[in-house]
Amino acid sequence: MARVRTVLRRAQQMRDLSPLTGLPGNFRITAELEERVRSNRLFAVVHADIDNFKAFNDHYGFMRGDSVIKFTAQALLQAASECGDPDAFVGHVGGDDFVALIHPDHAEAFCEGVIKHYDDGILDFYDTADALQGYIEVTDRRGERHAFPVASISMGVVSNQRRRLSSEWEASAVASEMQEFAKRQPGSSYQIDRRN
After folding, report:
1. In terms of Cα–Cα distance, which of 146, 80, 83, 154 is closest to 119?
2. Could you report the per-residue pLDDT of 124-179, keeping only the tens digit for each?
3. What 3-state DSSP class applies to 191?
4. Where are the domains of the chain?
5. Left, alpha or beta for 61 (phi > 0: left; psi -120 to 50: alpha)?
6. What does the pLDDT average to over 101-122?
7. How many helices (H) and strands (E) would you count in the chain?
8. Which of 193, 195, 161 is nearest to 176 (CA)?
9. What does R_g of the chain's alpha carbons equal in angstroms?
10. Which DSSP category does 129 fall into?
11. DSSP letter assigned to residue 151
12. What's the predicted TM-score (pTM) here?
C-alpha cells in the first residue's frame, strides 16, 4: 500500500510540473506555501513576472517568448542556488509568473541575483537593432504603434520575519502588492514589504 501511495504521489508531482520550464506548478507551490505558514518557519514569498512580456511575445512570436520564459526560470533557479538558502523553492505559476519561497535572510541576495542573471542575458533574445535602440515597436489592435522598453523582471517580497502571515492567501496578496510597487520602477527591480 505504501508503494502505491508513493507512485500516486510521484505521478501527481509529475503532472504538476510545468511542461515549459520543468518547475513545480500551482499545486506544489500552494502545498509548499501552506506548509511554511503552518509550521511557523521563517520564510519570504517572492512573486516575479516579466514586464512588457506581452509586447515581446506579440512582436517576436510565442516560440521566442517561450525561450524567454525558460531563460527567466533559469535565472531564478541560478539565483536560488547561489543565495545561500538550501531550502529555496522556485515554482512556475504559468505564463510569465513565478513564485519563490526563501528564507528572509536570503531574500535580497536572491532578488539581486535574479536581476543580475536576467539583465545579463535578456538582450540575447532581441534582434540587434531592437537591442541597440533599447525598445521594440508594437502595433495595437487600433493600428497605433507603441514603443516598449526591453523586457525586465519585477519582484514583490513579503516575509513573516517582521509580521505574522496567517495564510498563504495573505502572503500571496502582500507579495503581489509589493510586485505592483516594483513594476512602477523602470527596469528590473524588487520591492520588499517592511511593514510590521
Report:
1. 154
2. 999 999 999 999 999 988 999 999 999 999 999 999 998 898 889 999 999 999 99
3. strand
4. 18-185
5. left
6. 98
7. 7, 7
8. 193
9. 18
10. H
11. P
12. 0.90
How far is the CA of 105 from the CAs of 73, 161, 173, 187, in angstroms?
Answer: 22, 9, 21, 24
Q: Is 51 exposed, middle or buried, given 0-12, 13-18 or 19+ CB atoms closer than 10 A? A: buried
What DSSP designation does 6 have?
H
69: cell is: 520564459
Q: In the predicted model, what is the mean pLDDT of residues 75-86?
A: 96
Q: How many CA atoms lie within 13 A of 1 on its CB side?
A: 0
CATH architecture label of 18-185: 2-Layer Sandwich (3.30)
Q: Is the dihedral of CA 52, 58, 60, 65 positive or negative?
A: positive
pLDDT tens for each residue of 52-62: 999 999 999 99
Dist. CA 43–CA 37, nearest whole Å:
8
**What is the residue type of 179?**
Q
Q: Closest by alpha carbon to 104, among 43, 175, 191, 32?
A: 43
Strands 152-159 and 189-192: what pairing? Answer: parallel
Is-contact 14 66, C-beta < 8 A? no
User: pLDDT of 36-49, one tens digit each?
Assistant: 999 989 999 999 99
DSSP 16-81: TB-TTT--B-HHHHHHHHHHHHHHT---EEEEEEEETHHHHHHHH-HHHHHHHHHHHHHHHHHHHH
